[in-house]
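Continuing the batch. This is chain 6 of the set; chains 1 through 5 are on the previous pages. Same settings as before, nothing changed between runs. Recording input and output for traceability.
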Amino acid sequence: MVMSSAGLDFIIIDLEHPPTSMQNAQNQVFSMHGTQCTPIIRLGEHSEPTILRALETGVQSIMLSHVSTAEEAENIVRSSKYFPNGERGLSPFTLHHGYSDVNMAEKLISANEQQFNGVLVEGEEGIGNLEEIVKVEGIDMVYIGVYDVSQTLGIPGDLTHPKVKKLLKDCAVLAEENNKVAGSVARDNNYISMMLDLGYRFISFRNDSFVLRQGLEDAKHHYNGKLNR
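Output for chain 6:
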């Protein structure tokens, strides 16, 4: 709730790396209701039951990690969209549908139209298949895992290396040519500017733990500097 009041467009709820439960994710989704901030759930695996459970928390936006082929992207669309665009399981008595089966036809059309699917392309195989992945209908955003990309290029962590920047640019161009949004992560304000210049329009910034740690560390250094005068 605190972060969603900061004027952000979205907050990613990560269910891939931290030990966060689906129940905790749902509580975080509920805390953002009534704000202008969109909750997005990030999942580490692509199974239909996992995608369904994530969507039933009330989110309309998901990101799936480690997508390496067009077939995987197609399965994600199929699992997240209702008939006739997909095969998502239907329970009318959920938050999406106002806990009611009234006017279901209209609700399903609206749900399919508003569903946002992002795929994270992070490894050599995914980058190699990107031209096919971006053509999958129902995928809205292609998110490049820049840290993994730098590692694939043999320069792990060197996010401003010319090779990394060229690959990022090539990916952004390919996404735009196929009416997809290009996304990635920025580690500081300068990197945000660089990503915008490269054509990226979905830009995440660090994570909550880093921002909290950095804020406290900066305050500590400032305080210690005063004491040491």
